[in-house]
């Protein structure tokens, strides 16, 4: 594993701005898992990696505030999806690269984040499972906010399509890798507890 000092400085974006439809409208990042809110697990994991921890949230800012250096929200109030949160995070990032993670993946570990960050540079880096990119587990150069703004204005809302257009570097993970489990339904939250 690379030492912390050999990893590039990065901003970190935790995506917590969703509607929580699969959770009956609950704010996923604030749901408890093993005695702590989901966002707390991610905060503990990424805090040593950055002095620029950003949370994208569209509600409950007062509850997310203690877990972040800064909060961002979507321009629109109608929940445009994760690409809207990535757009806000890229505009706010203070470092050359932005590590992007979903709030509902508390089983992530340091080796996977280090694998992503070790490839950070001029190109986007994303987790891949077979032919499928996992865009919510990625490192994106902050300078790409210009490209994202152009495709956003043209109507793009898919993180997968946008990242594919960037010809990213990839970190391969096996199908079913538990580190990538999104605990985004009541059943998953319970069965992974």
Unreliably modeled segments: none
Name of the top-level CATH class: Alpha Beta
Radius of gyration using CA atoms only: 15 Å
Order of strands in the sheet with the most strands?
5-4-1-6-8-7-9
Short summary of the structure?
Helices cover 28% and strands 21% of the residues. The protein has 193 residues and is an alpha/beta fold. The chain has one domain (4-191): Spore Coat Polysaccharide Biosynthesis Protein SpsA, Chain A (Alpha-Beta Complex), CATH 3.90.550.
Notes on the protein architecture:
The strands form 2 sheets. The chain has a 7-stranded mixed β-sheet, sandwiched between helices. It has a two-stranded antiparallel ribbon with strand order 2-3. The chain contains 7 helices and 9 strands. The model has no long low-confidence stretch (mean pLDDT 88). By secondary structure, it is an alpha/beta fold. It has helices spanning 38-46, 61-64, 82-92, 110-118, 145-153, 159-165, 186-191, and strands at 11-15, 32-33, 36-37, 53-56, 70-72, 97-102, 125-129, 132-141, 169-172. The relative contact order is 0.18.
Note the main attributes of this structure.
7 helices; seven-stranded mixed β-sheet; single chain; globular; Spore Coat Polysaccharide Biosynthesis Protein SpsA, Chain A; alpha/beta; 193 residues
Spell out the blueprint of helices and strands.
Layout: E1 11-15, E2 32-33, E3 36-37, H1 38-46, E4 53-56, H2 61-64, E5 70-72, H3 82-92, E6 97-102, H4 110-118, E7 125-129, E8 132-141, H5 145-153, H6 159-165, E9 169-172, H7 186-191
Parallel strand pairs: 1-4, 1-6, 4-5, 7-9
Antiparallel strand pairs: 2-3, 6-8, 7-8
């Amino acid at each position: 594993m690379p030492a912390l000092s050999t990893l590039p400085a990065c901003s970190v974006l935790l995506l917590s701005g969703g509607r929580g439809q699969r959770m009956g409208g609950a704010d996923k990042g604030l749901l408890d898992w093993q005695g702590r809110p989901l966002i707390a697990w991610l905060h503990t994991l990424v805090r040593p990696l950055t002095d620029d921890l950003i949370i994208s949230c569209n509600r409950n800012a007062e509850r997310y505030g203690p877990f972040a250096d800064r909060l961002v929200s979507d321009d629109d109030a109608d929940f445009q999806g994760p690409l809207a949160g990535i757009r806000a995070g890229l505009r706010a990032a203070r470092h050359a690269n932005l590590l992007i993670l979903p709030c509902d993946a508390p089983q992530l570990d340091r080796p996977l984040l280090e694998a992503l960050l070790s490839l950070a540079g001029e190109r986007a880096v994303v987790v891949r499972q077979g032919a499928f990119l996992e865009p919510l587990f990625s490192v994106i150069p902050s300078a790409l906010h210009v490209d994202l703004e152009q495709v956003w204005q043209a109507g793009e809302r898919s993180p997968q399509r946008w990242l594919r257009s960037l010809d990213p570097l990839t970190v391969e993970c096996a199908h079913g890798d538990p580190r990538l489990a999104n605990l985004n339904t009541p059943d998953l939250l319970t069965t992974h507890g």
